[in-house]
């Protein structure tokens, strides 16, 4: 096999510009975000809205596996506290 049908990418520790260049260089056309919540408190440039914008710039389409949750919903709704 000379090429991969899919790639995986961890973004921790990589500058955003490097991530974009890696995706662009690999010819990625579709991005599938598998995070439970497509939000990053520490890397807002990789949150859903910005990720969509950046993907569009390189000609890629961004998708999320969890489309139901939005950034405005509180996390505790999805992570209820365990009974004491």
Note the main sheet: 2 strands, parallel
Helical proportion?
10-25%
**Beta strand %:** 5-15%
User: Please, how many helices?
Assistant: 2
Distance between the termini: 53 Å
* Apparent shape: globular
Give the SSE string.
HEHE
Q: Outline the low-pLDDT stretches.
A: none
Structural class: alpha+beta
Mean pLDDT: 79
Task: Write up this protein.
- The chain has 84 residues and is an alpha+beta fold.
- It has a domain at 28-70.
- It is built from two helices and two strands.
- It has a two-stranded parallel sheet with strand order 1-2.
- The longest helix is centred in the first third of the chain and has 10 residues, at 16-25.
List the helices and strands and how they pair.
Elements: H1 16-25, E1 30-33, H2 48-57, E2 61-64
Summarize the structure.
24% of the residues lie in helices and 10% in strands. It is α+β, with helices and mostly antiparallel strands and 84 residues long. It has a domain at 28-70.
List its traits.
84 residues, alpha+beta, two-stranded parallel ribbon, 2 helices, 10% strand, globular
